[in-house]
Amino acid sequence: MTANLTRKVYDERLRTLSQGSVNVNFNAFIDIKWDDPEFAVDTSDPRWVLTSADALGAHPWYQEQPLETQIRIGIWRWAMIAKVGMQFENLLMRGALDYVFQLGNQNEEFRYLTHEITEETHHTQMFQELVNRTGVDTAGGKRWFRQLSRVLPVFGSLYPEAFFTGILAGEEPIDHLQKAALRSGEPVHPLPQRIMQIHIAEEARHISFAHEFLRLRVPRYGKARRGALSVLFPLIMRILCDVIMIPDRKSAAEVGIPAWVVKDVFWKSDAGQKMLHSLFSDVRMLAQDIGLMNKVSRPVWRALRIDGRPARFRGEPVPHTAD
């Protein structure tokens, strides 16, 4: 476990993050050229074909499909991810508002989190606008998640360490997928490309805050509370990862993806297994640093197939070889 983060250092880092939000920020309807012909959703544009950074895009079944089918599925996939992303960001905002409501005066978390909520508002706007422009009529997350999300925000104040663990569980997979797509060197349509660039730039602050929040609090918890969180941590990671990454099989069938392909991609195939292990290298590093990796929790990580080498530093690119 690393040395405990002091409140003074924590507050200084939050002030830096807050100033970053002032210096570098985006507006969904100013910084994206929605009506530029180059950004139009053209169902014949091959740049909608999924990159190999997406486990579905890397799957042999997808790669063997005709170009028009790859494009149609690619547009659907981007819309699905955007819709679930919008729902997750909405949940985050409501929980963060619940958390800041009970903060005392002179608390640096209030300013930072209200910056984050403002940025997430723009993210929900650009995600939903992307869905609207594609014409894909998706409900987003699975029904149980949409129903449960009505009550999950109360954990922002009732159980904040679990809530902000959940925030990381949602933010890390999307961030990983977007960075991998941009790093792939393969063509990406300029509309999702611009959305990803904005989201990655601002999400870096949001992920930093969640990491710092847990680094400050968790090492100070008693043995029982920290032990409970050590087991909950990988469970929350895996459950919310599946919510965000795995499409509903009925929805997938509607665009012609067989159920066996969905099962193989998430997470039976070699590419799927590699992606699942790599998604959480940063949070494995965090869990190790704050004392959440122990003889009880490590088998849980393994059983959920999200164990592996921790990142050496936040944002470390995924190696080409398996862990």
Quantity of strands, as a count:
0
Q: Main β-sheet: number of strands, strand sense, barrel status?
A: none
What's the number of helices?
A: 15
Provide mean pLDDT, rounded: 93
Which blocks of ≥5 consecutive residues have pLDDT under 50? none
Give the terminus-to-terminus CA distance: 22 Å
Radius of gyration: 19 Å
Strand composition percent: under 5%
The succession of helices and strands, N to C, reads: HHHHHHHHHHHHHHH
Structural class: mainly alpha
Helix content: 55-70%
Shape: globular
Describe this structure in words.
The chain is 66% helix and 0% strand. It has 323 residues and is mainly α. The longest helix is centred in the N-terminal third of the chain and has 35 residues. The radius of gyration is 19 Å and the shape is globular. The two termini are 22 Å apart. The relative contact order is 0.13.
Write the layout of secondary structure elements.
Elements: H1 7-23, H2 55-58, H3 60-63, H4 67-101, H5 108-134, H6 143-148, H7 155-158, H8 160-183, H9 190-217, H10 223-245, H11 249-254, H12 259-268, H13 270-279, H14 281-289, H15 297-303
Helix pairs in contact: 1-5, 1-9, 4-5, 4-8, 5-9, 8-9, 8-10, 12-13
Short description:
It is globular and about 55 Å long. The protein has helices at 7-23, 55-58, 60-63, 67-101, 108-134, 143-148, 155-158, 160-183, 190-217, 223-245, 249-254, 259-268, 270-279, 281-289, 297-303. The protein has 323 residues and is mainly α.
